[in-house]
Request: fold
Amino acid sequence: MLMAPPLFLQGNNMALSKSALKSKIEQEMIKGGLVITGQYAQASVLAEAIANAVIDEITANASVSVTGGSSAGSYKVS
Reply:
């Protein structure tokens, strides 16, 4: 079965969104049986922390190399 990439990976323009990634992580947590709502639920807080860390790491350290054409070069991901 062919799976579509997550929303933040589709297309040529990779939009980095902490809230979109958090939502995706929460959806996967729910699929795995975790409870993300309720007085004592902390899974949503964990999802937000993971999303923030992943996006911060990507924007701090990732670069994209374009190997041909008028835009050839290395570019920082933002």
